Amino acid sequence: MRTLIDDAVAQGATLGVLGATDDGRALYQTLGWKRHAPLAACVYRP
Questions:
Q1: By the 8 A CB rule, do 35 and 25 touch?
Q2: Taking a C-beta distance cutoff of 8 angstroms, is the pair 16, 8 a contact?
Q3: Nearest in space to 18 (alpha carbons), one of 28, 9, 8
Q4: Each residue's pLDDT expressed in tens, for the chain with a length of 46 residues
Q5: Which domain of life is it from (predicted)?
Q6: Of 7, 9, 23, 25, which residue is most buried, by most CB within 10 angstroms?
């Protein structure tokens, strides 16, 4: 994950958006990610 983040920044990324489970969020927070809003999963099937 750190390699992907570093590569994105090297290519000019200034914002990252990541969806994660509660367990995944714990990992990403150790890498510097911050929770800003809950994520809802929605599916529309006509």
A1: yes
A2: yes
A3: 28
A4: 889 989 999 999 999 888 888 888 888 899 889 998 888 888 889 9
A5: Bacteria
A6: 25
Of 32, 35, 10, 31, whose CA–CA distance to 21 is shortest?
A: 35
Nearest to 28 by CA among 37, 40, 20: 20
Question: Which of 37, 18, 13 minimizes the C-alpha distance to 28?
Answer: 18
**Closest among 27, 35, 32 to 9, alpha carbons compared:** 32
Domain ranges of the chain: 1-46
**Token pair 């990610």 in the structure block, residue:** 33
> Distance (Å, rounded) from C-alpha 17 to C-alpha 2?
15
